[in-house]
Amino acid sequence: RIYYLSLEFYMGRTLQNTMVNLGLQNACDEAIYQLGLDLEELEEIEEDAGLGNGGLGRLAACFLDSMATLGLAAYGYGIRYEFGIFNQKIVNGWQVEEADDWLRYGNPWEKARPEYMLPVHFYGRVEHTPDGVKWLDTQVVLAMPYDTPVPGYKNNTVNTMRLWSAKAPNDFKLQDFNVGDYIEAVLDRNLAENISRVLYPNDNFFEGKELRLKQEYFVVAATLQDIIRRFKSSKFGCRDPVRTCFETFPDKVAIQLNDTHPALSIPELMRILVDVEKVDWDKAWEITKKTCAYTNHTVLPEALERWPVSMFEKLLPRHLEIIYAINQRHLDHVAALFPGDVDRLRRMSVIEEGDCKRINMAHLCVIGSHAVNGVARIHSEIVKQSVFKDFYELEPEKFQNKTNGITPRRWLLLCNPGLADTIVEKIGEEFLTDLSQLKKLLPLVSDEVFIRDVAKVKQENKLKFSAFLEKEYKVKINPSSMFDVHVKRIHEYKRQLLNCLHVVTLYNRIKRDPAKAFVPRTVMIGGKAAPGYHMAKLIIKLVTSIGDVVNHDPVVGDRLKVIFLENYRVSLAEKVIPAADLSQQISTAGTEASGTGNMKFMLNGALTIGTMDGANVEMAEEAGAENLFIFGLRVEDVEALDRKGYNAREYYDHLPELKQAVDQISSGFFSPKEPDCFKDIVNMLMHHDRFKVFADYEAYMQCQAQVDQLYRNPKEWTKKVIRNIACSGKFSSDRTITEYAREIWGVEPSDLQIPPPNIPRD
């Protein structure tokens, strides 16, 4: 059995996905229609399950779909947050957060399983006794499982996502009851139940809060008890009647750690094996390593989890001892191989010394796993060459690449039925479970009828999205303009600011020469900023402020519009991606581990403007670099520029259009009522821009001019679109999961349909 452990599952809505995977959508559509109702209207009522921040949580959701479709016995394990990612409101151009009370009207897809409730222990003290180690005087929180079905695509397989909710035990704060403060004691139950209250809204950023560490241990402790219970009760679990033999555990159980968030699985499994099951340490360590595998999702230093030792001492004292023991054996091993190399020992230790001693969770994961993977080829190389260089030198065979993917069921069939039908007409339906078959579209690249059909579907999607924007947000846009879309979490490394500089430059060009023919564009930027991330919130304010000026300038007319897409989430992605012409993937080379939005746009008939970063590199390889708009510094150039020293002023002084745009932002041209509103942005860009926005400005502007030029020739544009769609097959999460299954978990996927429940089995 495969256990995918993640603190995030960004599932979105479930109704349409369930109908699609069960092959029931047309039947339901018809039945609802005959009742005088509109299925689409019904679908719009469902809340998103927003239990994730972005890429990492959505990847987990795509993986669940693929694992079920590939017939794997796989379980997703996470937390049932009462409040998911906040709802974003824009007020006076600023982001305001609102609690996401997604369970307000109940959740019809989940089934509580109180019969499998489990205890989770916190705090307490450790006692070393003659009959082993005891963790005593702990506080107990109960973990209540809620199961959500995960149907495979038309194969009668249904897997389970099990999310844990925190419950206080009935004797919680017993001592308070005894002193007679009954009411206080009952109210204090909230303290325990707060563990599963809310998702931490940080994307690619570590915030060392105790409640977050509690969440991480909570999901791990409950899940591992469940895994071991299932292993012991399985008739294949063991020859041994009392099931104390864990020899076969790694053959029967694979645990995949989605980033370091569930890293405590490693010391927790050791604790259970050594303290509870009395397995000797070396055997337990061998079992743990063979069971666990770790996926790294980022190389940004501020995102790496480094927990204070003092927090562990208080919250998880036994786990701290186990981590020290793991680290000691690890460092002894390194010291034997590299005698006298004390700096190597310091670099490779799980414990970081300093004013505040910290536990480096990534190092713990690398040491405690049999496989470590990055999520795109370039990222996996960076992982080996920089982040985990010392570990790679020690065990190169441990490091792998597994390029991310997306499920073509949700991200084509469900969100873009028009395009899916057009493709089915030409090559049949098999591509939906074998996306590499899209290659069969290549001979049709110059087929006049097919070109017209693909262009027609895109235009219909754009009209539909335009109507949606008008209805929901009262904004009127030109549906024949180029839809230039930049949707993802707001972060400096993703460089929404570079897009802003392009928009301002475009605006200035129109103002300078209003008679000239410009390719009309609707620039849509969307995404949430972490509530505590000042710069990201300021970037949103800049986008909305630029929109206020550009959209109300009569000289511009409908040649340029800037729209901030409020409350970007899975259900909005399903609407905007099929309507996009241009996909912006413009992170500084070496910063975006993979990206998965890039793949969704490619599959849905948008062209990509992007840097050689993350999976963009492999997209360019699959489709041919000439079929993407690639620009800017490569990883090597970024490194060279770092060695030389990046000087923003050089670019500012030598590029008049850049200087004009920056000066306008700085002077309050876009914020006349608050002239120094954006001084922090300009100061950052000029003096401490880690992501080198100005260094790529000129190349970006030139590349955007090529985009305009091609867009003027709709037929050639659509040919490139078809080539992109035809070459997007690699980016199915079915391919990704097949690789995990074979190369990490040691299982074979199967495309067999199991018989439906109404047909008796042999």
TrEMBL record:
GO biological process per UniProt: glycogen catabolic process
Coiled-coil segments: none
Protein family (similarity comment): Belongs to the glycogen phosphorylase family.
Gene Ontology molecular function: glycogen phosphorylase activity; pyridoxal phosphate binding
Assembly notes: Homodimer. Dimers associate into a tetramer to form the enzymatically active phosphorylase A.
Keywords: Acetylation, Allosteric enzyme, Carbohydrate metabolism, Glycogen metabolism, Glycosyltransferase, Phosphoprotein, Pyridoxal phosphate, Transferase
CDD domains xrefs: GT35_Glycogen_Phosphorylase
Gene Ontology CC, one term: cytoplasm
EC annotation from Swiss-Prot or TrEMBL: 2.4.1.1
N6-(pyridoxal phosphate)lysine PTM sites in chain numbering: K600
A Pfam family: Phosphorylase
Known catalytic reactions: [(1->4)-alpha-D-glucosyl](n) + phosphate = [(1->4)-alpha-D-glucosyl](n-1) + alpha-D-glucose 1-phosphate
Species per Swiss-Prot/TrEMBL record: Pan paniscus
Cofactor(s) this protein cannot do without: pyridoxal 5'-phosphate
Protein name stated in the entry: Alpha-1,4 glucan phosphorylase
Gene3D superfamilies membership: Glycogen Phosphorylase B
Function: Allosteric enzyme that catalyzes the rate-limiting step in glycogen catabolism, the phosphorolytic cleavage of glycogen to produce glucose-1-phosphate, and plays a central role in maintaining cellular and organismal glucose homeostasis. Glycogen phosphorylase that regulates glycogen mobilization. Phosphorylase is an important allosteric enzyme in carbohydrate metabolism. Enzymes from different sources differ in their regulatory mechanisms and in their natural substrates. However, all known phosphorylases share catalytic and structural properties.
Primary gene name: PYGB
Signal sequence coordinates: none
